[in-house]
Write a structure and sequence with these properties.
Length: 455
Amino acid sequence: MLRAEVMMIGWSGSWRWVGLGCLGIACSDYNISDKDEPSEPGEAEDAVPDVVVDPESFAITGLCGTEDTELAVINVGLADLDVFDVIVDGRGWSVDTSPLPVVLAPGLSVELPVTAGVGSATIHIDTSDPDEPRVSVPADAAADEAPLIAITSPADGAVLPVGGSSLSASVLDSEDGLDELEVTWESDPDGIFAIDFADASGAATANWSGRTAGPHTITATVEDTCGNATSAVVEVCQDEGYTSDELDLSAWQFEGSAEWDTTNDWLQLTAVESEVVGSAFATDDVVSGDNIEIRFNFYMGDGTGADGISLTALDVDRMSGFLGGTGCGLGYGGDAPCTEGPALPGWSIEVDTFYNADADPTEEDHLMFTFDGDVDSAVIWSELPEMEDTGWHEMVVTVADPNVRVEIDGVVYLDEVASGHFGFPAYVGFTAGTGGETNRHLIDSLEVTGSICDN
């Protein structure tokens, strides 16, 4: 270990240091000398300032507006450092030079406020450092990039069903968390209908229901935390119609024995009683009788076996009431030997479970399509398997003038041309009736679609 031995002695009333020697190596090897000896030429000039900066460069991405930061100028030398000025060459960046000029003793620093804006610049610091009088700091800031969005459902040109749909989109952003991105859904003509954030995977969804029938331009706009936004657009068409859970029951027209069963949330047209008739029509929506799809469930049974139900498109322009004849009239028909009526104008499709010789085309359970409640003049018809006491059945009726298509439980029983008048504004509803025999007649899960869109 290097060790220098010194001693202090008195001389003429004062003290001075005198070197006694060095142990292990020569004193001259480490410039250790007696203070009485003259120093080497230039030794005083070795105490000079030395400037460093922190950071040595700036690189900022995803900049939203401006960002405040600092630039430290530090004296790591052995003499005072004069910091004269800072010059910014370029765009987007600025430095607060109000602390300048300043003299920094060895080991001290000054922090200069820096405002970063979008752009590239070089920050020049001028000092008294003899070796590097100007230090240059490159500075670059890139603006926040707008996020990306794609509508994944529905597809462009889709026809949206009655009863609502779920819309979905996918978002991407290289700077923000995906669950920080806000997505706004808007329709032309209906306006904004949903605003929500995407989830952590970038999925965004919205509920589509109760929209105006016809063409729509759906726009999904994603906005990041910087306020940058991007939109995606699809063109769709909303079919006209409604479902039973969308209807205001106060706007239904109930006649005869028909009532809404609030316990089970279904329509009861007749209870197990003889000589009763009931009808129910949705009067808050008018559809066109010539282009429509109607889907519903029905139940008939629990009695002695009569008579049946009808789905009826009631001609709004010619109607005088909502209830037709009992027995073979099934609540829609009239002007026949088996029922006095009155007959309801429009068209009807009946599911008949009781044979009336003077009106029915077959003794079997059957479908029958008629115009204007003419129960003894079938336009088209088809036999059915047993419908009574066999549970709930799903029925789908599609009318596209002049074709009528009917399926029950997935089996098509009618798909034929029917000659007659379809083109009228209509209330959609149901009727049922009993005569000397009985049955309970129920309707559930109604969905009405007016096909106003080009498929």
